[in-house]
Structures are given as C-alpha cells and as structure tokens.
C-alpha cells in the first residue's frame, strides 16, 4: 500500500507544498514518507536534541576551563611585580654576600629570570 503520497507539507522558504514522496508508513491513519513519519521525526528530534545538549555541555565546560585559566593567569599576573621584586632582592643579597656562599648556577638562573622579566616588561619577550 505504498501508493499514497506522504501527508506532510514542506516549507520551501516561501510557501508550503505537499511532500512529493510516496507514503511508506501508516501512522495516525495517514501515510508518511520515511522522513516525515511522525514517530521517526520524534525519534530524530530527540536524538538531535540530545546531541545538541551534549555539544552545549561540552562548550560550557570548555568556556569554564578557559575562564578558570584566565582567572589563574590574572592571579599570576597580580603576583608578578612582587615576584620580580623578591628576585631582585635575592640576587642583590646574594651578590653582596659574595658568590662563594651560593652556587653560580642559582645566581645565573635568577639573573636570567630577571632579564626575561625585564624583556617581558618592555614587550620583547
Ligand atoms: Zn514526506
């Protein structure tokens, strides 16, 4: 009994017109093509909704992760002047006490960090 036309009407952007496909499924006393069978439409809508909901949740998780990273970066940035100042004092104190009391590697590492901080402040890093 697949000689009936699908009962659905389709919007083409300006007007509604009858679906041109053959009705293959009988539901609610009417024939429907595979695309427009109400139970199929309902199932597909449910699947599409579930997938959309998953994508939305994933997007929200990604946005939360980005916001967390941004807040962490802001907290780090707020500490930057304090850390640079502490490093300057440390290097200064080490140098005044003489290098013998500290390894050269520690002072060199601290100086390299200070140099990087200076470049970063000038926008060169
Ligand atoms: Zn149809």
List the helices and strands and how they pair.
Layout lengths: L8 E3 L4 E3 L6 E3 L2 E3 L5 H60 L6 H19 L3
Helix pairs in contact: 1-2
The structure holds zinc ion (ZN).
Zinc ion binds next to loops.
What report would you give on this structure?
The protein has two helices and four strands; from the N terminus they run ββββαα. It has 125 residues and is mainly alpha-helical. The chain folds into two domains: 1-36, no CATH class; 37-122. A hairpin with a 2-residue loop joins strand 3 and strand 4 (30-32). Helix 1 crosses helix 2. It is rod-shaped, with a radius of gyration of 34 Å. The model has no long low-confidence stretch (mean pLDDT 88). Bound molecules: zinc ion. Zinc ion binds at residues 6, 8, 19, 21, 33, 35-36.
Name its key features.
2 domains, two-stranded antiparallel ribbon, single chain, 125 residues, mainly alpha, two-stranded antiparallel sheet, 2 helices, binds zinc ion
Oligomer: single chain
What is the averaged pLDDT score? 88
- The strand line-up of the biggest sheet is 1-2
Discrete helix count: 2
- Number of self-contained structural domains: 2
The molecules bound to the chains, other than polymers, are: zinc ion
The helix-strand sequence is EEEEHH
Low-confidence stretches: none
Backbone CA Rg: 34 Å
The coarse silhouette is rod-shaped
End-to-end separation: 75 Å
Helix content: 55-70%
What is the β-strand count? 4
Helix/strand class? mainly alpha
Largest sheet: 2 strands, antiparallel
Beta-strand share of residues: 5-15%
